[in-house]
Amino acid sequence: GVPPVEEFQRIVPLDSGGTISLENINGNIEIYGWDREEVDVFAEKMIPRPREAKVRVFRRGFSTPKIEFDKFEDFVKIRTRATGNKEASVVDFYVSVPHSINLRDISTGEGNISISDVYGEVYVELRNGDLKVDNFSGSLTASVVNGSIRTSLFDLRKEDEIIITTKQGDIVVFLQEEVNAKIECSTPNGEIFSEFEFDTPLPASKASVEIGEDGAYLSLTSLNGDIRIKKINLDYSRVEVAADARRGL
Predict the structure, then answer these.
(1) pLDDT tens per residue, range 160-189
(2) Is 141 left (phi over 0), alpha (psi -120 to 50) or beta?
(3) 233 plus 119 within the same structural domain
(4) Which tens digit of pLDDT belongs to each residue from 77-108?
(5) For residues 78 and 93, is the Cβ–Cβ distance under 8 A?
(6) Which structural domain, as residue segments, surrounds residue 209?
(7) Residue 200's pLDDT is what?
(8) Model-level pTM?
(9) Residues 175 and 52 both lie in one domain
(10) Which of 39, 43, 145, 240 is 20 to 30 A distant from 56 in Cα terms?
(11) Do 42 and 131 fall within a single domain?
C-alpha cells in the first residue's frame, strides 16, 4: 500500500524578485511560478513502514524529518533536517512562488526537481534524479550527479548565464529560434546533436557556436551522456508566461 504521510504547509507574503532557498535531504521538489506575491509551501513527509519484526527498532530509529522554515524580509529559507535515519528522510515539496524569483540552493539527494514558469536566478543541485526547468528566463546554474537535465529557455539576454553539468545523464536544451547565444558543449563519452548550426560537424564530443551577437552564455557538460539542443516549436505546449512577464507585457 501507499506509505502514510505527514503534511506540512506554510503560506507567507513575498514580493516579486525575492529569494527562496530549499535544501532537502531526499524527495521530490516541484516549484511553480504564479501571479501572487506570496509563497505557498506544501510538503509531504513519508513515514516509513516497519516490517512487523522490527517495530521497536523502527520507532526508535525512524522519526519523520523536521522541516525548518524561516521568513526574513525578502528571503524564505526552507530546510529538511534528519531526526533519525538520514536515508529514511523523504519529503516531497510543492512550492508556488512569484514568477520573478531567485531560487538559491535548491537541492535534494534522491528525487526529481521540477521548476516552471519563473524568471530570475536559479541555483540547483541534485544527486540522484532528473531535473526539469520549463518556461524559464534568466540565469541558471544546475549540477546533477546521476540524472538527466531538460530545460526550455525563453527571452535569453546578454547578462544571462546558463551553466549545466551532469556526470551520468543526458542534457536536452530547448531554445527559441531567434536566440542570441554563445554555446559551449562538452561530452567526453557521449555525442552532441543540435538543430542549430554549429562550427563543428555534429555529432561530436566537443563543440561550440555563437548564434547571433551579444547573446547569453551557455555551458553544457555531460561526462557520460548526450547533449541535444533543440528549437522551441511555435506550438510549444507552454505559454511564454515567464518571458512575457519579464518583458513587462
Answers:
(1) 999 999 999 999 999 999 999 999 999 999
(2) beta
(3) yes
(4) 999 998 877 677 899 999 999 999 999 999 99
(5) yes
(6) 112-249
(7) 87
(8) 0.89
(9) no
(10) 43
(11) no
Compute CA distances 183 → 2, 75, 136, 155, whole Å: 44, 32, 17, 15
Which of 104, 126, 160 finishes a domain?
104
Residue 65 amino acid letter: P
Residues 116 and 231 in one domain: yes
Does 239 lie in the same domain as 122?
yes
91 and 146 together in one domain = no
